[in-house]
Amino acid sequence: MISIDLIEATAKELMAKAAIEIPDDYLDGLKQAASTEDGDLSSYVLQAMLENYEAAKQDRRAMCGDTGTPRWYVKMGNGTMIEGGPIALEAALRRATAQSTYELPLRPNRVHPLWRTDHNNNIGIGAPEIEYGYEPGGEWIDLITVHKGGLFGTDYRMLFPSDGIEGIKRFYLDCLVAFGKRGLACQPAIIGIGIGGCKDTCMVLGKRAACLRIVGSRNSDPKIASLEDELKELGNSIGMGAMGFVGKNMVIDANIEVGYCHTGGMQMSVHAFCLSSRRAVARVFPDGRVEYRTDPEWFTDYQRRETVEWEPMLEAAE
């Protein structure tokens, strides 16, 4: 059984890591973008951000003044047992979020949508979001925190099968141009694209593609992987760079996740993560071990399964 105190302590450590330390995969992608950028203002922004990230790490301060809206993704093995059960788990994550808001500090960004009530701790109705995933076998729990910008940089459209791949590209470019020209996202960013599902699950797919896939990873479907490469190149060909200035590095990577949808539609969502790509991951074991990493490893074969039952031996044979 996994100790609830260990979960809370780990969650607090993850909040600090996400707020302060850029994941290596994104940092490498950003450095690559900076090395090829020739737009004056875009180059200036990229160099300033790289210096800012280093200063944040040295000073142990949040890398960006707007620390986003903290959220949690929790994945566990099928045999996992948690002290106090799922209610205790969620309470521990809420305590860790509130305490970290005071101690790091994080900007208290969460308010009631109508009354603007602010508890000053990023906690409230439905906040922070906690989403779950499960894997066959194992006794462990993965805690993943993402501090995603909570205002813009997201769009949705109901496409139709006849729109095809060209329709996907058009909407993708429409979104990037709007994000850049109207200041709706902080570029360059990891772009997540959700295709299919229902409207709500399509949005979830796109956000997870942006937040839970690392730079350089590719979808296990070769055709989708090829489209990811094409969308990354396409996004960097529109003449926009950092923060929408003239440049050629708007997209650090493009990640696509799909879900089966209604036969008459082809839903699509587009999500820009953030120039400050904030995520941190830890696996917690019943014996007290904690292993920190930056790759969420969320999209396993099991998460993308198409069959009624999960039979990994058959999947491997195919």
What summary fits the major beta sheet?
5 strands, mixed
Rounded Rg: 20 Å
Helix content: 25-40%
Number of helices: 8
Distance between the termini: 36 Å
* Category from helices, strands and their pairing: alpha+beta
Query: Residue-averaged pLDDT, rounded?
Result: 94
Which parts are unreliable, with pLDDT below 50 for 5 consecutive residues or more?
none
Largest beta sheet: strand ordering: 2-1-3-8-9
State which percent range the strand residues make up. 15-25%
Keywords:
single chain, 318 residues, alpha+beta, four-stranded mixed sheet, 8 helices, 9 strands, 38% helix
Can you offer a commentary on this structure?
This protein has a domain of 122 residues. By secondary structure, it is α+β, with helices and mostly antiparallel strands. The strands form two sheets. Strands 2-1-3-8-9 form a five-stranded mixed beta sheet, covered by helices on one side. Strands 4-7-5-6 form a four-stranded mixed beta sheet. α1 packs parallel to α4. β8 and β9 form a beta hairpin. The mean pLDDT is 94. It is 38% helix and 20% strand. The radius of gyration is 20 Å and the shape is globular. The chain starts with a helix and ends with a helix. The chain has eight helices and nine strands. Belongs to the class-I fumarase family. Keywords: 4Fe-4S, Iron, Iron-sulfur, Lyase, Metal-binding. This is Fumarate hydratase.
Short overview:
This protein has a domain of 122 residues. It is built from 8 helices and 9 strands.
Helices and strands in order, then pairings?
Blueprint: H1 4-20, H2 24-36, H3 40-59, E1 69-77, H4 85-103, E2 130-135, E3 141-148, E4 154-159, H5 164-181, E5 189-196, H6 199-211, H7 222-235, E6 251-259, E7 266-272, E8 279-284, E9 290-293, H8 312-317
Parallel strand pairs: 1-2, 5-6
Antiparallel strand pairs: 1-3, 3-8, 4-7, 5-7, 8-9
